[in-house]
Amino acid sequence: MAVSLALGGCYRGAGALGNEGRDTINVLMVNNPQMADLQRLTAEHFTKSTGIKVNYTVLPEDDLRDKMSQDFSSQAGQYDVASLSNYETPIYARNGWLTPLGDRAARDTGYDQADLLAPVRKSLTAADGKVYAQPFYGESSFLMYRKDVLRDLGLTMPEKPTWKQVAALAAKLDGARPGMKGICLRGQPGWGQLAAPLTSVVNTFGGTWFTKDWQARVNSPEFTAATRFYVGLLRTHGQAGAPQAGYTECLNDMQQGKVAMWYDATAGAGSLESGESKVAGKVGYAPAPVERTASSGWLYTWAWGVQKASTHQDAAWKFISWASGKDYERLVGEQLGWSKVPAGKRASTYRDPEYLRHSGAFAAATKNAISSARPDDPGVQPRPAPGIQFVGIPEFSDLGTKVSHEVSSAIAGRQSVTDALDKSQRLAAEVARAYQER
Known about the structure:
By secondary structure, the protein is an alpha/beta fold. The chain has helices at about 1-5, 35-50, 60-75, 90-95, 100-105, 120-125, 145-150, 165-175, 195-205, 220-235, 245-255, 270, 315-325, 325-335, 355-360, 365-370, 395-410, 415-435, and strands spanning about 25-30, 55-60, 80-85, 135-140, 140-145, 260-265, 285, 300-305.
């Protein structure tokens, strides 16, 4: 929070928020690095040109979701704009908590809604066909690997690796440098931590959380095989402290040269290629590994939604148009560095010569991963709800977190995968029954 205070155009704690006039909006925002950059640039560039003051409340992801749910569900109007993902957007829209933004985007000639990558735009569109949020940045997942280490060992990364090929490489890369482990995968409990990459592995192994008619399948042979593979790979060739390691820990391990491979979000590539990274220029990028599916990369976007109860709708849109626009990407590139651009959302980004000059190592791989993501058909069987690394129902945040605790316990060696998934199946069956009865 102290860092946020120093960076922001204006930062205020939740208790100090208030409507200070028509030229002030309150924005609830997750504390990701890209958002910190946004704070740094707001006062000088957005407020100075529009006269609209922005009060930021910045919170860790779980705390953000709790506060956003409380305020938006009650339509209290404390926050005009909030950063939400493609998981919450269709759910919040269905509940009537968000203002549709498609018409405003269409009237805003400088925004260029058609430039947004189709999978990202679709993921923020509700069942009624209306767009309810605009993306700040988008991501998929891919395999990041030390191409110099593979080269020194005479190894080659396949153009489209399978998970079995990745496991074989991890065994050979383990110990390739002093203290280096073969691979880093999330083991930290959380529906947005361990459950995200694990679910993408489950999909490509032929598993699913639920069948189309709401039968829970968490301890099915396919789900079990995928989880055994994931847990076994981590226990055998994974990073130190795997049961507590999430995205941030794996990013740090890869940057510091402690692991040879990392399967995770495409958004991590910019940090790996930044000036602070010890491995900049040494990393290769391969598609998300597969088994039974043609692709397996996930789809995620942090986006901006406007609370329906907000009394500052025009100012809120001006903020979103600026923060999600082409000019903002160029501003970040020119002032903070092109590796910091909140990319993954616009086709034009991947035609920008300056962006490609600085981010060419991962730009094409990122765009290809996002463009090939299939949230409506991520596995080998029909699904009851959209989502690749999550199931698009309100109950999944709780279910996914509980199941991830069980799997993380198996990674730590405190129980078997079979026991972990048998417990998880009972939890999933409770959720499924509620939908079967509808």
